[in-house]
């Protein structure tokens, strides 16, 4: 037989449930605009009924709250993280390429290459009209010098952007480490709560926001597993779950620990015009030293986008096969996959080379070239390596390393800063060689052999003498004063031309010997050269520069499209996720009214039963 007060307890259970439901609804409304918040719901079921052994069977005893659960779909979370990672990769590429395009637009504007080429053409025409006039010569040299300054500024802007991106990489690594620590600490708190039977809903939401942010930087593989009690076949599931996050297949966070990344400045450059201090990323060992190298190009997200623009070479890095190695001195001869012209050579004088997967350093090289100036093989000299203790020692090549792969840098299909710097270098080297070959056939006003028109300053403050370096088949050294020494960063008009107008070559020796001061065959050839369609494969120097700007515009358009598409995908997935876990204010308002009415009804039940018990106990005679 049920207790006399069963009805009161039944009404009380409803009162408690509706009070909890009202509190939960209030919590949902309060966090309607909180980032990452998941709507919570009280999960209830009828309490165990009483068996009365009557014809009507069992009597209900009320309602009981099982738990307060958050509404979340892990499937949408995983889809969102993938889309978010891809979006930030393309968005990072687009942002940085747009910055570079700003510099390119300056170069195509009123103070850009089009204007300077026009000024040079006019100055050349003025010189052709008055070849012996010093004022005209000075105007010509100032215009040519201004053209070189414009290219110097362009290259410096690109190099400064490379440094800025490098700083962003360091900040990104710091942010990843901070997020890993936060996720680990939140996971510990979640496990502690849930092992005791509770639901750590708000803590899980905070952790989800951290993972959302982490997915901006790199692709994440998130796995949750139920923590088991017991051993072997006697194991039973607990209420708690462990979490592990892997990046590039390596654990970043799990329930036991979190790992950190660190940046290490490169000991040597990978590309000839790289800014000093570029960093690589490594996993940090327990003692704070660098461990396994982290490859950001094997993942996605902001890190990959930053590395692709900072190091992107359109797959034009030097690569080949090891032909021969020697010791004392340590050298490695490489037969490269595709011959490369000296104008396009971007290998640093001193740098890093990877032989059969292991990095070595070198401090010089020699290369064979053919009659067209194409380099076919390289011999890297004075090679060193780091031993197990991090000490630099002479290179010790393993037996059988021949016929294995060799490369300088990585092959990165994206057209990043190294690619565009290589194009600028190709422009100044080709242009300089073309013009210098014309000028050095003549003489200056004094009848002396003409100096190179375009060159660069050597370490001693003098101009390199570049004439005749690549005249025939031979062997080129990194120390030779070849056109390899010219880059868009150091390109300049010959210092002697700038100081003394008499050094400007306009005539041949025979003209000067005959006293023909008005002869200007050199100037006529240069004027023709400015519109020579054979100077570059793209045509004239103007066409070459236009090809660079067009290439960048196409890349920006492509990344802009990819960014927009991924943003749409990300938004769609987030909307789907919000449809499950988001707070609908109208729905919560309806629930608030519903639970208020039910709470009032539960209160009415208790009020009625209170009158019944008062009648039974206080007013019924015994």
Provide key terms for this protein.
single chain, 622 residues, 12 helices, 3-stranded antiparallel β-sheet
Tell me what you see in this structure.
Helix content is 46%, strand content 20%. It contains twelve helices and 22 strands. The strands form seven sheets. Strands 14-13-19-11-12-16-15-21 form an eight-stranded antiparallel beta sheet, with no helix packed on it. Strands 5-6-7 form a three-stranded antiparallel beta sheet, with helices on one face. A three-stranded antiparallel beta sheet has the order 8-9-10, covered by helices on one side. Strand 9 and strand 10 form a beta hairpin. Helix 4 (134-195) runs antiparallel to helix 6. 35% of the residues are buried. The model has no long low-confidence stretch (mean pLDDT 90).
Count of DSSP E strands? 22
Mean pLDDT: 90
Helix count equals 12
* Order of adjacent strands in the largest pleated sheet: 14-13-19-11-12-16-15-21
